[in-house]
């Protein structure tokens, strides 16, 4: 029998299509071994789908990986207030320290004729001498750095001819409060000032101001 080549091809395709059905219909009594499960989903990823950089891994990595902690550089600043004890900038320190030193010198000098207690007169003379010396050192540092100094203060009115009865007490209390502020200012600058020379000046001057405060507290009623 002569069969054309197209006919042979169609016969072979028909036999191949019927082979799985024939194999599935063959069973043997007593054979209860489970048939291995085979993934039939057409969406199962192939091995190459899991290669690094594959789009299949991107959502899985994003879901499973813990969020990386934000670094200090990445965290935005939430406040502008400075922590307690933080020194002010160098130029501001020069201005405040100069103004404070000048006021203390003027207050001590003007009080000398009115103070009654000899101990307070001695403290006033000490304040004039020590603060005048400290102010001169601070001015020298500021001029070398090119930092501005506050202008001269207006002259205080001359002291009254007769001091009031509580002048000693009021003057001692005011000078104690002023020195407490100066101690806090110099202490912060000595511990954390930016400029090395100014930081050294604050460290060297702080013990003198602390000594003034201690002596004033002893005589304060």
Uncertain runs? 16-84
User: What is the percent of helical residues?
Assistant: 55-70%
Regarding CATH, which class of the domain at 90-219? Mainly Alpha
- The number of strands is 0
The CATH topology of the domain at 90-219 is given as Ferritin
Order of helices and strands: HHHHHH
The number of helical elements comes to 6
Q: Strand fraction band?
A: under 5%
CATH architectural name of the domain at 90-219: Up-down Bundle
Biggest sheet architecture:
none
**N- and C-termini, Cα separation:** 139 Å
Structure overview:
The chain is mainly α and 221 residues long. The protein is 58% helix and 0% strand. Helix 3 runs antiparallel to helix 4, helix 3 packs antiparallel against helix 5 and helix 4 packs antiparallel against helix 6.
Characteristic key phrases:
single chain; 221 residues; mainly alpha; Ferritin
Question: What is the topology?
Answer:
Elements lengths: L4 H21 L31 H8 L25 H22 L6 H28 L21 H26 L3 H24 L2
Helix pairs in contact: 3-4, 3-5, 4-6, 5-6
Short overview:
With 221 residues, the protein is an all-alpha fold.
């Amino acid at each position: 029998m002569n069969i054309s080549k197209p006919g042979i091809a169609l016969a072979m395709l028909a036999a191949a299509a019927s082979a799985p059905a024939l194999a599935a219909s063959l069973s043997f009594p007593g054979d209860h071994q489970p048939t291995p499960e085979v993934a039939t989903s057409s969406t199962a990823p192939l091995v190459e789908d899991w290669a690094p950089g594959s789009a299949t891994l991107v959502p899985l990595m994003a879901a499973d990986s813990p969020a990386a902690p934000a670094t200090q550089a990445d965290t935005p600043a939430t406040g502008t207030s400075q922590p307690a004890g933080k020194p002010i900038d160098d130029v501001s320190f020069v201005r405040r320290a100069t103004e404070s030193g000048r006021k203390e010198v003027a207050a001590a000098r003007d009080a000398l004729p009115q103070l009654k207690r000899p101990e307070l007169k001695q403290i006033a003379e000490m304040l004039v001498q020590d603060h005048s010396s400290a102010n001169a050192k601070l001015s020298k540092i500021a001029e070398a750095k090119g930092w501005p100094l506050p202008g001269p203060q207006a002259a205080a009115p001359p002291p009254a001819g007769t001091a009031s009865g509580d002048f000693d007490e009021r003057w001692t209390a005011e000078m104690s409060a002023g020195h407490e502020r100066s101690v806090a200012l110099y202490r912060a600058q000595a511990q954390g000032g930016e400029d090395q020379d100014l930081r050294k000046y604050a460290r060297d001057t702080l013990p003198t101001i602390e000594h003034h405060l201690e002596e004033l507290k002893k005589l304060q009623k």
